[in-house]
Design goal:
The structure holds two protein chains of two kinds. By secondary structure, chain A is mainly α. Chain A contains ten helices and no strands. By secondary structure, chain B is α/β, with parallel strands linked by helices. Helix content of chain B is 36%, strand content 24%. Chain B contains nine helices and ten strands. Classes of the chains: A mainly alpha, B alpha/beta. The structure holds adenosine-5'-triphosphate (ATP) and magnesium ion. Adenosine-5'-triphosphate binds next to helix 1 of chain B.
Chain lengths: 223, 255
């Protein structure tokens, strides 16, 4: 028992390492605040391009989505982070990480939105277009609001995945929460910081988990 | 006798369809339709399933792209390259069998969307007009209700208000009462009767033969993508000339 406390719940280490981990926590939050909205917006854009039914666009979207869904995100991150400077494109670390994540997450969000948009009956389109709304107006005011509601649970659970997934940035030494926890573990020769990091992730993610299960219950009730 | 004019008002027709053809792949669904609809006229279209009635209506606002022919609405060539189809559609109301209300918006929201986004009214003005339109379909008190809180008949009336609010030149109805329980049909027909009385030009595809007899200026019988016969309701229902018309009417009235 003592050994467990000593190694995983070591209070002096917690106190000492807290500010260090907190700085990582903030970076993780910043990453989430950038990657999630950008992923959602670009995913929506991808799904809308697909829905134009313009053959060329559709094919480009399919290639984009398939590629980035099957490309290992870790390799993608390393590529963007270390590869782009080699071809003369120096990006700040934060930007490279966000770009790499966005390429990946937009394709996932895109697939979710695509399914949502396709779930809207044709009659909705016809009614809206018959009153003179343009394609884009119909998309924005009629189709997307309903589509987003239909796929809200999928969007939320994907968001949860994306937020956890920001920990991957540790492989390029980005000072987010997991990276800082690993450093702290190395400094203290003690895994307590990892437990602290887990606690911080919990604080960040638990409200979303709650939200998700509430939504899922509501969707079940509606059916 | 294609192109026969109704007996209501002289003057330029509201809807002028000439030589309209439409094919889906190898299947020719409209085989050269000629149709003139005068201001304030109510034209009733009947015909067997698959005869092309819906396709004809949908070609009149380009929900379906005609393969060839011409369509003028209130003098505007809707197939011309230079025509802004979205502006024209505002003047052509369409009512669907399945209502197609926007489920995420209230009745008022459904009615005001195009008023704001297409007609360009600011929200207060759009809402004033929306309330007037809902009043015309006798649903003033349901402005705040969502579609799933309304009966089928009420939903269809909201859908009519949505089109009416834009002050269309003509209204196209595609089986507006076919999805309704029998006891709800009357409320929708009553609204259509009022619209006719107030001078709206209407093309109605429907199986409500009693309504046709009483309200239509002209009945058109379609079969296999052609207008087989047309004339005033008394003649089409009372003394049809074509065998196909007689056979169709017999099958309908047998039921
Ligand atoms: N989008 C489409 N693609 C292929 N075929 C179509 C399409 N829309 C209609 N059709 C075909 O065109 C023909 C005419 O259809 P339409 O819906 O105009 O008939 P209708 O007279 O309205 O019939 P109903 O009384 O059953 O509504 C039918 O054979 C139908 O299968
Ligand atoms: Mg039809």
């Amino acid at each position: 028992m003592d050994a467990i406390i000593e190694n995983f719940f070591n209070v002096p280490i917690m106190v000492k390492m807290f500010p260090f981990l907190l700085s990582g926590f903030w970076w993780t939050i910043k990453l989430c605040l950038l990657v999630v909205p950008l992923g959602i917006v670009s995913g929506l854009a991808v799904a809308m391009l697909y829905a134009t039914h313009i053959r060329v666009l559709k094919w480009l979207v399919i290639i984009y989505v398939d590629f980035f869904r099957s490309f290992p995100p870790l390799v993608l991150l390393v590529f963007v982070y270390y590869g782009l400077p080699l071809v003369g494109l120096e990006l700040p670390a934060l930007i490279s990480v966000v770009v790499a994540f966005m390429l990946n997450t937009s394709s996932y969000y895109g697939e979710i939105f695509r399914a949502g948009i396709e779930s809207i009956p044709r009659g909705q389109w016809e009614a809206a277009r018959s009153t003179g709304l343009t394609w884009l107006q119909t998309m924005v005011h009629v189709v997307v609001p309903q589509a987003a509601r239909n796929v809200a649970p999928d969007l939320t659970s994907n968001t949860l995945e994306v937020m956890k997934f920001t920990a991957l940035a540790s492989v390029v030494s980005f000072p987010e929460l997991l990276r800082q926890a690993q450093l702290a573990q190395g400094l203290t020769y003690n895994p307590t910081p990892l437990i602290m990091a887990a606690g911080m992730y919990l604080v960040l993610l638990w409200p979303i988990v709650r939200l998700l299960s509430r939504m899922e219950r509501r969707m079940l009730a509606v059916r | 006798m294609p192109g026969t004019r109704g007996a209501v008002t002289p003057g330029p027709p509201i809807l002028d369809v000439r030589g309209l053809r439409k094919s889906f792949g190898p299947l020719e669904v409209l085989k050269g339709i000629d149709l003139l609809v005068d201001p304030q006229e109510l034209v009733f279209v009947i015909g067997p399933s698959g005869s092309g009635k819906s396709t004809l209506l949908r070609c009149c606002n380009r929900l379906e792209e005609p393969s060839s022919g011409h369509v003028w609405v209130d003098g505007v060539d809707i197939l011309a390259r230079a025509t802004d189809i979205n502006a024209v559609r505002r003047t052509i109301g369409m009512v669907f069998q399945s209502f197609n209300l926007y489920p995420h918006m209230t009745a008022l929201g459904n009615v005001t969307l195009a008023l704001r986004k297409v007609a360009g009214f600011a929200r207060p003005e759009a809402e004033t007009r929306g309330h007037v339109a809902l009043e015309r379909v006798d649903l003033a008190e349901k402005a705040a209700a969502y579609p799933n809180e309304l009966s089928g008949g009420q939903q269809q009336r909201v859908a009519i208000a949505r089109a009416l609010a834009l002050e269309p030149k003509i209204m196209l109805f595609d089986e507006p009462t076919s999805a309704l329980d029998p006891e709800l049909v009357g409320s929708v027909l009553a609204v259509m009767r009022n619209m006719r009385a107030s001078g709206m030009t209407m093309v109605v595809v429907s199986h409500e033969m009693r309504f046709a007899r009483e309200a239509a200026d002209r009945v058109i019988f379609m079969d296999h993508g052609e207008i087989v016969e047309e004339g005033p309701p008394e003649r089409i229902f009372g003394a049809p000339e074509e065998g196909r018309t007689r056979a169709f009417l017999a099958s309908v009235f047998d039921r």
